Amino acid sequence: MRLGIVGDPEGYYVRELLRASGGAATVIAWNELAGHEVGGGEPRFRAATATLDAFDALIVRSMPAGSLEQVIFRMDVLGRLDAAGVVVLNPPRSLETAIDKYLTTARLSEAGIPTPRTVVVQTVDAAMQAFETLGRDVILKPLFGSEGKGIGRLTDPDVAFRTFRLLERLGSALYLQEYVDHPGFDLRILLVGDEAFAVRRRHDSDWRTNLSRGAVAEAVAPSPEELQLAQRAAHVVGAPLAGIDILQDREGRRFVLEANAVPGWKGVATAYGIDVAAKTIALAERLVEERRKRPAESPTT
Q: Tell me, what's the pLDDT at 40?
């Protein structure tokens, strides 16, 4: 299989995938993506190190910040490669959904998957109204972001007002979610195709349970309800490779907080002692074989 990895060449997960491939994969940095010959001959997609549409599969790692034009163009290239027959893991549409917390939450809720009450607004007045509606105890999250970066808990009206005003001036959307009182841990279920690996993430001194913030992960067996929630959430997002975060409140109710289409797996790999990078490459190989077996589509008229 001709495999490409799109991401930071120095990043941990890119290096892990390159190791698991035996050094056979090609690494492509995000700023190398390019489309050539549009309107002149056969469209080709190139990078500094490779012709992109010559790959059987591309594994996407990380989703770096960039200008609106850069982000749109990068997704355009991935989408056109997918349409040209290259397996993109995860598919471009799942990436577009999962990197946008509002869109992810909305689609999960529409599918009947329990999520915390959430309000997304653009003005201070609307944010203060939402602050009151959500019980004066809210989690403020960036619309785009991961690993708990930029997340804060607001309980004081004066602090909330000043925070909202600053973000409004910066042109930020204000994503507010009710705080769910929990016993100090959440569940991350990593889905790699049909395989599922669950870890309980616990932090004794922080309500945030991200491993990047010092939480400890231990392997656990998810309940049938938790596994079903994770599988449904991944299906809604459209991600064969997904990290689903589930939080249980003190009354036993479960909520899906996040559906990540570029999931980290350090905690799972350590807790289970498995090579997740190798499993990810095996998933890409299986998706390539499945695509090859599909009957050719009839030309439209």
A: 56
Residue labelled with tokens 């790699």: 192
DSSP characters over the chain: --EEEES-TTSHHHHHHHHHTTT-SEEE-GGG-EEE-TTSSS-EEE-SS-BGGG-SEEEE-------HHHHHHHHHHHHHHHHTT-EEES-HHHHHHHT-HHHHHHHHHHTT-----EEEESSHHHHHHHHHHTTS-EEEE-SS--TTTT-EEE--HHHHHHHHHHHHHTT--EEEEE----SSEEEEEEEETTEEEEEEEE-SS-S---GGGT-EEEEEPPPHHHHHHHHHHHHHHT-SEEEEEEEE-TTS-EEEEEEESS---HHHHHHHT--HHHHHHHHHHHHHHHHHHSPPPPPP-
Spatial strand order of the sheet with 241-248 comes to: 216-220, 195-202, 185-192, 241-248, 254-260
Q: Are 32 and 20 in contact (CB under 8 A)?
A: no
List the structure tokens of 81.
Answer: 């490669």
User: What type of residue is 298?
Assistant: S
Residue in this structure with the two tokens 């016993």, named with its chain if needed: 183
pLDDT tens profile 74-94: 999 999 999 989 999 999 999
Which tokens is 25 given? 């994969």
Model confidence, pTM: 0.88
pLDDT tens string 13-61: 999 999 999 999 999 999 888 876 555 556 567 787 788 889 999 999 9
